[in-house]
TrEMBL record, chain A:
Domain (4Fe-4S ferredoxin-type): residue spans on this chain: 218-250, 298-326
Name of this protein: 4Fe-4S dicluster domain-containing protein
Alphabetized UniProt keyword annotations: Iron, Iron-sulfur, Metal-binding
PANTHER family: ANAEROBIC SULFITE REDUCTASE SUBUNIT A
Molecular function as annotated in GO: iron-sulfur cluster binding; metal ion binding
Organism: Desulforamulus putei DSM 12395
UniProtKB/TrEMBL annotation, chain B:
The organism's taxonomic lineage, starting at the top: Bacteria, Bacillati, Bacillota, Clostridia, Eubacteriales
One Pfam family cited in the UniProt record for this chain: FAD_binding_6
Cofactor comment: Binds 1 [2Fe-2S] cluster per subunit.
Keywords assigned by UniProt, alphabetized: 2Fe-2S, Electron transport, FAD, Flavoprotein, Iron, Iron-sulfur, Metal-binding, Transport
Cofactor(s) named in the record: [2Fe-2S] cluster
Molecular function terms, GO-annotated: 2 iron, 2 sulfur cluster binding; flavin adenine dinucleotide binding; metal ion binding; oxidoreductase activity
Residues bound to [2Fe-2S] cluster: 243, 248, 251, 259
Species assigned in the record: Desulforamulus putei DSM 12395
Protein's name according to its UniProt entry: NAD(P)H-flavin reductase
Length: 334, 277
């Protein structure tokens, strides 16, 4: 199917009448996902959002439940959000990250109702990347500028129009309702050409990396890697696959709420025991944790690498630490 | 979908000062709803998140045994925001409890076996649960000889003093208590846990050990000397935790989460994990 770019605002208006539509919008000089009221607000020419798309399902800060305690006892109100949502124009790296996060928020014993309820009520419209940024390396990470994993519907920008593909059943059902025109042979060929030819940095070879890291916990490699790191955790906050969180209570008088906030393994407090003991007491241990988690522990648990190559950790690092270099250095070790 | 983050309401029925330094209290909670009591099926070695409304929640090993119906007990040291708030709670206050969480001591697998249980300091809570469970008339016949070695810095810091006295009077449990330095009136042993363990030289099928890292470090070689193989030394770890259900990412040791894959591991399992706990 196909849709002309000038028809996008009216399509979004139509969708917004029925769903909450989250789309990239320009705000304070940055691009971020926000609920839009009018299709005109959407900005589909962005490279990537500052904050990762995970925040739509797993917000930076969210109130899990509220409670009131008084003479009559305890009353709780759960804040599960079942709003039907369409995310329009998510980049393939962020769409793939949601597939990875699904592993975390549902395990053999427990289901995270807050994440999963949003997940089950959200449809992802992915948008391929015609011009990957210099920091993008999705082509190295079982993803790519036109990876459709995690998208329900996928858009390919062929200039004047988007070629539209239904990927999941959910996506195909929505497309059937929208009644878009069929794409002609020329448009389809243009999309296929882009999908085949456009690549991000694909030079980082992670084959066998997990096994290699498995035997590297005590390796001297970790002694110096972290040296210029400031421990600001921008890399982890802005990582679409990082899922660590903190739980805290906020209360005033008899009303309180349980809040979940993004947290990061790069902070010393993250693992500090009440006794003062800290199993990861320094930058070395924390950097090792970050890399090990992504490229070994996550692989062992879920058989997937917890990196999609979005490059946010590179772009936002105040001291220019580049995870691609770290991976190349590990590969170069004997 | 059941929401694993929502606490069950419980009433604090007893806030008991356990140790002479007053830093450890034992809290007894009663379920407010009968259905919750029925659903809260736990095993010795598991833990729960205890919540003080308005302050937050923190994970504590369950000190009561499943054979003690309708209540949960926790012995808590005063260290942080939640534990301090707990210490100051008046009896009758409603708290929240989320659990049971984590795996447990493998008591099914240990049936028919003799056991040595070693505890140090206030890490004796889930061990109390285990001992209480085994000593229950309904279960005692399922297990062989039971040796318990328990130490604290001084007599005042031993937990569950009344129960220790009662156990000492029984013939179906060999209880050895020890303190670090001689104190007038003390009739038990004097010496650190590793030394006392060496003197006692327990011969059992399995050992369960829980205590501060330094005690574990020096006691493990003694157990190996006594002939316990790594798959027969059972330990319980603790790490900073939030969710307790394997999602928030902080309590991992290698690819294992202490909250969900543990807290109980055999030495054999731990030997295969990074030494980062």
């Amino acid at each position: 199917m196909i849709i002309n770019k000038n028809e996008i605002p009216s399509l979004l208006d139509k969708l917004a009448a029925e769903y909450r539509v989250m789309a990239p919008v320009k705000k304070n000089g940055l691009v971020e996902f926000a609920a839009i009221k009018s299709g005109e607000e959407a900005c589909l020419t962005y490279a990537n959002t500052k904050k990762p798309g995970k925040e739509i399902l797993f917000p930076q800060s969210e109130e899990l439940f509220n409670y009131t305690v008084d003479a009559e006892g305890v009353r709780m109100q759960d804040n599960v959000d079942p709003t039907s949502t369409i995310v329009f124009g998510m980049r393939p790296c962020d769409a793939k990250s949601l597939v990875l996060l699904d592993n975390v928020f549902k395990n053999d014993q427990y289901e995270d109702v807050y994440y999963l309820t949003r997940r089950n009520n959200t449809l992802i419209v992915g948008l391929g990347c015609n011009e990957p940024a210099a920091t993008c390396f999705c082509s190295s990470m079982a993803c790519g500028p036109f990876s459709k994993e995690g998208s329900d519907i996928f858009l390919t920008d062929i200039g004047e129009a988007y070629v539209v593909e239904g990927i999941s059943e959910k996506g195909k059902e929505l497309l059937a309702k929208l009644g878009l025109a069929e794409a002609g042979a020329e448009a389809r060929a243009a999309a296929a050409k882009l999908q085949q030819e456009v690549k991000a940095d694909g030079t980082i070879n992670i084959e066998g990396l997990s096994d290699k890291l498995g035997g590297m916990f005590e390796h001297p490699f970790w002694d110096r890697l972290h040296e210029k790191c400031l421990g600001c955790a921008a890399c982890t906050y802005l990582c679409p696959t990082c899922h660590c969180f903190d739980i805290a209570d906020e209360a005033k008088d008899c009303n309180g709420c349980r809040v979940r906030n993004w947290d990061a393994c790069m902070f010393p407090l993250f693992t500090l025991h009440g006794s003062g003991h800290n199993p990861r007491p320094n930058g070395k241990a924390r950097w090792r944790q970050r890399l090990m988690h992504k490229f070994n522990y996550f692989v062992e648990r879920y058989n997937a690498t917890a990196c999609v190559g979005c490059g946010r950790c590179i772009k936002n690092c105040p001291v220019n630490l580049d995870i691609r270099q770290a991976l190349a250095d590990i590969r170069a070790l004997d | 979908m059941r929401n694993p983050y929502l606490p069950l309401p419980m009433k604090l029925v007893k806030n008991f000062t356990e140790t002479s330094d007053k830093l450890i209290h034992t809290f007894t909670f009663e379920f407010l709803n009968e259905q919750d009591a029925e659903n809260f099926q736990y095993r010795p070695g598991q833990f729960a998140e205890v919540m003080v409304y308005g302050k937050g929640e923190a994970p504590f090993g369950i000190a009561s045994s499943p054979t003690e119906k309708g209540i949960l007990k926790f012995s808590v040291a005063k260290v942080g925001v939640v534990s301090t708030a707990l210490h100051m709670l008046e009896e009758g206050t409603i708290v929240g409890v989320r659990g049971p969480l984590g795996n447990s001591y493998p008591l099914e697998q240990l049936k028919g076996k003799s056991l040595t249980i070693i505890g140090g300091g206030f890490a004796f809570t889930t061990l109390r649960s285990t001992i209480q469970y085994i000593l229950d008339p309904a279960n005692r016949g399922d297990y062989g000889d039971l040796t318990v070695i328990y130490g604290a810095r001084n007599p005042g810091l031993l937990l569950y003093k009344d129960e220790l006295a009662a156990w000492d009077a029984r013939s179906d449990i060999n209880l050895i208590t020890t303190i670090d330095r001689e104190v007038e009136g003390w009739t038990g042993r004097v010496g650190f846990i590793p030394t006392v363990t060496k003197e006692v030289a327990p011969k059992s099928d399995y050992a369960i050990i829980c205590g501060p890292p330094v005690m574990i470090k020096f006691t493990l070689p003694v157990l190996v000397e006594c002939g316990f193989t790594p798959d027969r030394i059972i330990m319980s770890l603790e790490n900073r935790m939030k969710c307790g259900i394997g999602m928030c990412g902080r309590c991992n040791v290698g690819s294992k989460y202490v909250c969900k894959d543990g807290p109980v591991f055999t030495k054999e399992q731990l030997d295969r994990l990074p030494n980062e706990y």
